[in-house]
Write a structure and sequence with these properties.
The chain is of the alpha+beta class. The chain has eleven helices and 14 strands. The chain folds into two domains: about 170 residues, Uridine Diphospho-n-acetylenolpyruvylglucosamine Reductase, domain 3; about 110 residues, CO dehydrogenase flavoprotein, C-terminal domain (Enolase-like, domain 1), CATH 3.30.390.
Length: about 290
């Protein structure tokens, strides 16, 4: 398989990259290439121009800024995986990254590329949905910020203009006592998840849930935040029966079927993965509270 013919552009600054996308017809931005290159080779994408972002150094880096952590869009997944800053400030992401492809793909894949590709089964997409990330994009009209809840316009379609680039992603930092968990079920290690679940639980001094997050990946066309489950947990003592009961409600989510599994199987996995994620997050929240 070979890609279609295209003109290659290699900008060194963000301004140059934005200008190229704004002035060239039918142009695609190249980040890590772990999704775009196979799609080019299989002729699923037919651009006339490819704008390579790999020399735009200002798009890379990890920076803690008070109660948020800012990640440049071109930051490699492997750098995030081994970052002590990410492990401390965003352990949910660190855990999710161990499920992303294989070492070779994480060496090249970027956080911005994953979010823009927006595969609903992708691990970083699920994490961004769980943590209410904010995506900054840059285009000819300047910069703007998009809450991740508004970022998916549809299946594998981000809500950005073809002349815009994702420049960075900002994640809130939860208290260190928070319990977290990322679990998934896939056909083989390194495959996209059939269903994944990301959970965060914070307990108050009485052992009740004060904050809760549950997100599901791979179930539908976009990652799902289970707001009803979160609301049912907040203010409650997180017993095993409560977790089982609220997880069971995930069996009713609207799921998609494909050549691998029917929608009903994804609904079953949504229930199972949710329970596992919440149970693991709870056990870690308990240990964190005891250590504190």
């Amino acid at each position: 398989m070979k890609p279609p013919p295209f003109s290659y552009h290699d900008p060194e600054t963000l301004e140059q990259a934005v200008e190229l996308l704004a002035t060239l017809d039918n142009a695609k931005a190249l980040a890590g290439g772990q999704s775009l290159m196979p799609m080019l080779n299989m002729r699923f994408v037919l651009p006339d121009h490819v704008v390579d972002l790999n020399r735009v150094s200002e798009l890379s880096g990890i920076r803690r800024n008070g109660q948020t952590i800012e990640i440049g869009a071109m930051t490699r997944q492997r750098d995030l995986e081994f970052s002590s800053e990410i492990a401390t400030a965003c352990p949910l992401m660190s855990e999710a990254l161990t499920h992303v492809g294989h070492r070779q793909t994480r060496n090249r894949g970027t956080i911005g590329g994953s979010l823009c590709h927006l595969d609903p089964a992708a691990e970083l997409v699920c994490v961004a949905a769980a943590l209410d990330a904010v995506v900054e994009v840059v285009g000819p009209n300047g910069r703007r910020e998009i809450p991740f809840a508004e970022f998916p316009a549809g299946y594998m379609s981000p809500a950005i203009d073809f002349t815009e680039l994702v420049s960075r992603v900002t994640f809130p930092v939860w208290p260190r006592e928070t319990g977290h968990a990322f679990v998934e079920f896939s056909r083989r290690h390194g495959d996209f998840a059939i269903v994944s679940a990301a959970a965060m639980l914070l307990l108050d001094g009485a052992g009740r849930v004060s904050r809760a997050v549950l997100a599901l990946g791979g179930v539908g066309a976009v990652p799902l935040r289970m707001h009803d489950v979160e609301a049912a947990l907040i203010g409650q003592a997180p017993t095993a029966e409560l977790i089982r009961r609220v997880s069971e409600t995930c069996r009713t989510v609207e799921a998609v079927g494909d050549v691998y599994v029917p929608a009903s199987y994804r609904q079953h996995l949504a229930c199972v993965m949710s329970r596992r994620a919440l149970e693991t997050a709870l056990s870690r929240a308990d240990r964190s509270a005891a250590a504190a």
